[in-house]
Amino acid sequence: MWTRPNPVTEQRNAMNTLELLEISPVIPVIVIDDIATAVDLARALVAGQVRALEVTLRSPAALDAIRAIHDQVPDAVVGVGTVRTPAQLDAALRAGARFGVSPGLTEEVARAAATSGVPFLPGVATASEAMRAAELGFGALKLFPAEAVGGAALLKSWFGPLPDLMFCPTGGIHAGNMAAYLALPNVRCVGGSWLTPHAAVRDHDWGAVTALAAQAVELARTAAGKPLA
Ligand code: 3PG
User: Fold this and answer.
1) CA distance 181 to 185
2) Which of 27, 157, 167, 200 is geometrically suited to a Cys-Cys bond with 191, CB 3.0 to 4.6 A?
3) Mutation choice for ligand 1 from 170, 174, 177, CB with most ligand atoms inside 8 A
4) What is this structure's pTM?
5) 37 lines ligand 1 (CB under 6 A)
6) Whose CA is nearest to atom 1 of ligand 1?
């Protein structure tokens, strides 16, 4: 039987979910194909002032990458993405992940996330899924895939009936459309893979990664305070 997460336990967390969303305006969605790139990639993002890093469980190197970033890049806050099972979350937390992200939400993952003691962003794509996630104790959600399911217009519409829920939209977001999301009252940060282009990582072009991160932070600064689109 599901029980709501214990707020007392939640208060003991080193970082709560809203604090996670405030770390950087963008959480890069990272796929590490070559473990040798993990630390340099993380350092490049941190140099651009992007510190919350989601390493997805989409490659065999993912857990080793989380461990390496956790151990060697103290200014990064490394988390795990593409979490689909409690076992995956457990393995990532043992490797040093400090938050988790999922493309969706199952009762099993919800239970594991609630007892893990780390911030967790479950993925939702409909109002009913958002309401169910809220029932299960999650107040900050990943809208996924954001552009495909309605984008900033959808989140603007949800703010009326679901004003207490906060979103980190991900999927199809880039430098050209991130500001439209960040201008919304129910968005604190966005997620996306555009800060870590495959070619730049392959070529170890860390300057390019830092420049993309810095550009995103600057765009977010400019977007801050702008009226609702
Ligand atoms: C995700 O896994 O969260 C998304 O696939 C990232 O989407 P993007 O590649 O469009 O940024």
Assistant:
1) 9
2) 27
3) 170
4) 0.91
5) no
6) 171
pLDDT tens-digit map of 176-211: 999 999 999 999 999 999 999 999 999 999 999 999
| pLDDT per residue as tens digits for the range 148-157 | 999 999 999 9
Instruction: Check which CATH number belongs to the domain holding 169 and give it.
Output: 3.20.20.70
Number of compact structural domains in the chain: 1
Q: How far is the CA of 207 from the centre of ligand 1 (A)?
A: 22
Whole domain around residue 162: which residue ranges? 13-221
Does residue 157 form part of some domain?
A: yes
For residue 200, tell me if it sits in a domain.
yes
Query: Residue 32's closest CA among 53, 51, 60, 52?
Result: 60
SS3 content of the chain, % helix, strand, coil (to 5): 45, 15, 40
Instruction: Tell me whether residue 80 is in a domain.
Output: yes
